[in-house]
Amino acid sequence: MSSQNDGIIVILSSPSGAGKTTLVKLLSEKKNFNISVSHTTRKPRSNETNGKDYFFVNNADFENLIKNNQFLEYAKVFNNLYGTSKKPVIDLLSLGKNVIFDIDWQGTRQIKSQNIKYKIITFFVLPPSKQVLFERLSNRDMKDKLIASERMKDFYKDVKHWEDYDYVVINDDLNKCYNEISQLIDLSLDKNNKKFYYNKKKISDHINKLIN
Ligand code: 5GP
C-alpha cells in the first residue's frame, strides 16, 4: 500500500505527434512533477540535449542496463530501444515527489503489471484529427515525409491501446488539454471522489474518425 507521503506516478502515452511532450513539460512546470528521463538508442534530434530530453546511449550500453536489471520497463519503439531507469524514479517517489512519464503503451503495461506500491494514473493523448497529426509529424526535423508516413502507420497500431488507460484526452487546444489532465489528476487523488467518469462514447467515436 502506498502511504500518504509517497509520490504518485502519472503516465502520458500517445501515438507520436499528439503533442504529449509539451503537455509533460507543462505538468512538470505548473504541477511540480519530476520528469522521468528515459534512456534511448535513438539518435538525438537537433533540439535535444543529452541528460535532459533523454540519456542517449548505444545498443551495447542499453543491453548492459537490461542485463544489470536497471530498468523499471523498456521497449522497442520505431526500431529503437527506450527504457526508464528504476532507481531515480523510486528514489523520488519515496521522497514524496510525483513523477511523470512519457512512455509508450508497452512500458505502461509493464509498469502496471508490477504491482508497484505507488499510485499510478494513466492518460492516453489523442490528436484532434488525422490531418493535424500528419502535419505535426512532418514538421519535426525528420525532414523526410516518408518517416512521417511510417509513423502514421504506427499510429494506427498504437491507437488501439487506448482502452488500457484510465483516461483518454484529445489535444485540440494545448491549454484546454492541460487543464483537463490537471483536473483529472486532482480528482483521482481526491479520496472522496471514488470514481470519475469520462465520455467513452465520445472518445471511441473520435478514434473511429482517426483510423477510418
Ligand atoms: P520519440 O523518439 O518521438 O522521442 O519517442 C518515441 C516513443 O517512445 C514515444 O511514444 C515515447 O512515449 C516513447 N518512449 C520514450 N521514452 C520511453 C521509455 O522510457 N519507455 C517506453 N516504453 N517508451 C518510451
Structure report:
This protein is an alpha/beta fold and about 210 residues long. The protein has a domain at about 10-35 and about 95-210: Rossmann fold (3-Layer(aba) Sandwich), CATH 3.40.50.300. It has 8 helices and 9 strands. It has helices at about 20-30, 60-65, 85-95, 105-110, 130-140, 145-160, 175-190, 200-210; strands at about 10-15, 35, 40, 55, 70-75, 80-85, 100, 120-125, 165-170. It has a 5-stranded parallel beta sheet, with helices on both faces. Strands 4-3-6-5 form a 4-stranded mixed beta sheet. β5 (about 70-75) and β6 form a beta hairpin. α5 packs across α6. The longest helix has 16 residues, at about 175-190. It binds guanosine-5'-monophosphate (5GP). Guanosine-5'-monophosphate binds next to β5, β6 and α4.
Q: Which descriptors apply to this entry?
A:
212 residues, alpha/beta, Rossmann fold, 5-stranded parallel sheet, 4-stranded mixed sheet, binds guanosine-5'-monophosphate
